[in-house]
Amino acid sequence: MRILASYLNLDFDYFSAPSKYDNKVFRKYGYGGLSPGRRACFLGHYMIYKSIIDEGFHSALILEDDVDFETDITEIMTEIHRNLPAYWDTLFIGHCYEYKGKLVDNSSFANRLYESRTPHCTHAYAVSYWGARKLVEKLDPMIPHDAIDLALLEIVTNKEITSYSVHPTPIIQWNDGNNPSDIPESQYTYFSLKNSTLFFLGY
Hints:
Layout: H1 2-8, H2 23-29, H3 36-55, E1 59-63, E2 67-69, H4 73-83, E3 90-96, E4 112-115, E5 120-128, H5 129-138, H6 148-157, E6 163-167, E7 171-173, H7 197-200
Parallel strand pairs: 3-6
Antiparallel strand pairs: 1-5, 2-7, 3-5, 4-6
């Protein structure tokens, strides 16, 4: 992540996610019916929503540590934000297996903005301040019954929040055997970038 941030001139804040071995955290927030890894992931994202509210951020981009970017991600997202409606709760820049919703923008890039329909995965998405408030209200950290991406999917498909997605995704997850991602390598035959930053940098 630091290599990507340095090359793309992006300023990241690093958030220490709960460990799946941290029983103290789970005793405080509950176990639910999830595996330890999914519980930790759920709580990590939930705590970030709380931080967005506590810090009064207008919005925040949430990235997991196994991502890769298009080399022109800055230009792509400048165009996306130019077309993003003033009111939004979540923006899925990276996602998995989603059907396109209604086209929103007239971007000159191949990456276009659409209304969200069925966004899976949480490796790259933005949450607005008001979106974070809604998610904290709707998600129960004491009894997390589903993985965080499926919990968000349900909220989006029920139209409880206003959500948009970028297609094709300019940020993906990767796994080459050395990366600690728990995403199956087989997934990466389906999701790819036009110009991978990691590949450009020799990784």
